[in-house]
Amino acid sequence: MKNQVNGKTSSFITNKLLPVIMKFVNTKAVKALQDGMVYALPFIIIGSIFLILSNVPVPAIATALKNSGWSAFFTQAYTTTFGILSIWAAVGIAYVYVRNEGYEALPAALTSLSAFLMLQMLQVTAPLAGVMGKNGSGIANSAGNVVLSGNEISNHIDKLPGALQSFLESPVTGVINISWLSGQGMVAAIIVGIVVGWAYTKMIKAGWKITLPEQVPSSVANQFTAMIPSGVILISTMLIFALIKTTLNTDMLNLIYNSLAAPMQGLSDSLVGAILIAFLVSFFWFFGVHGGLIMGGIAGAFLIPNTASNAALYQAGKLSLNNGAHIVTNEFYNNFINLTGSGITIGLVIFTLVAAKSVQFKTIGKIELVPALFNINEPFLFGLPLVMNPFLAIPFFLVPVIVAISTYGVIYFGIVPPLNGVAAPWTTPAVISGFLIGGWKMALWQAVTLLISAIGYYPFAKKYDQYLYEEEQEKARNEGITI
């Protein structure tokens, strides 16, 4: 009876649930999101290096870099790489969408960039707004010491003529607000990239283009081909901006952030979100579908902005939960939920080294040892296998969930600091990646998660190994009788 129930459940998931999920995952928009974000990776990783250099965790070195001016140079480099993450998203997603449709993609990517910038008010809050008043930060000298408090600034400003006060407190206009170019504008950038890619290809397919004679060089002809679709998109964007500005006195990026991005980032940053992400990675893999690719593409849309937000706080020296730091970031996903591979399978590697008896377990374990150090575990997923293996299903599902819950807890309760926003490449070995993304405490905690994996997998691996061993012994006896 139990086998019948399990069979029906497996059949439902395989034949009913997974096809719906895969249909969604393989839509043009999701594929553009997954592949388009890849273009941002070099800037994220290189920018993370600049972030570390601008905030070296050794006080003597940090002071020397600050006094020499190099800290400011590294900050400039971080701001113009990692700090404009939304630009790479808007460009990359539109580019991939149109490229996948078989058309010249660069004009669409540039149109997406222009539309993304056009949808925001080109202004920033007056510098005085953040330093004035009781809650203002005040003005600090080069050493970081406050030389004029917020109240003192307000007292001085109050003595000025009203017109001058209004001028000093007015927003600075005619400038691009880089806050929207980082993680804060990511969801808007994704939406713009997808919509521009879709609209551009629809118009090209419908023949909305200027066709020049064959004698005209293709480099020139392609730009005229893009002129009508780009023109329609940009005029529509301008009208949308004008409508929102005149009726609501805000812009599209603010609307998207407050109504969609902030709530979704809050969900992804919750304990429930962490558990759901950890579970679904293994869930998809168990049925042979690339869980890391699916969840990385979907959840990454909200986790990467969390990383960018933490990076900004870290760069400003304000990284704490009280200042709005996020617990669940893209590095939480890469360097904990997927540590040593989907399912956190280092426990299986340890078992093969110290306790395995079956030839199959020992052989696959030797093959997996080196890849596991770099967070690759396909030899286990398909060679052991973990896919559709009832013996190892429980730890494969539960170990990542336990690690997600415990890691969330140690950050939430202040045992270890929040992740600093540094984007260590996903192939960075455990403990080393922990040090890069959170210092020595995070490296130590990563070592603890490896122990959790070893304990979690051991009894189930032992049972499966015994099953394989008995099968091998039975086969050897049968072959011996035959011989």
From TrEMBL:
The chain crosses the membrane at residues 38-58, 78-98, 105-122, 178-200, 220-244, 264-286, 336-356, 391-415, 435-458. PROSITE patterns: PTS_EIIC_TYPE_3. It holds the Pfam family PTS_EIIC. It is found in: Cell membrane. It is a multi-pass membrane protein. Residues 13-460 form the PTS EIIC type-3 domain. InterPro entries: PTS_EIIC, PTS_EIIC_3, PTS_IIC_cello, PTS_Sugar-EIIC/EIIB. It comes from the Bacteria. Keywords: Cell membrane, Membrane, Sugar transport, Transmembrane, Transmembrane helix, Transport. The phosphoenolpyruvate-dependent sugar phosphotransferase system (PTS), a major carbohydrate active -transport system, catalyzes the phosphorylation of incoming sugar substrates concomitant with their translocation across the cell membrane. This is Permease IIC component. It comes from Leuconostoc falkenbergense. The lineage of its organism: Bacteria, Bacillati, Bacillota, Bacilli, Lactobacillales.
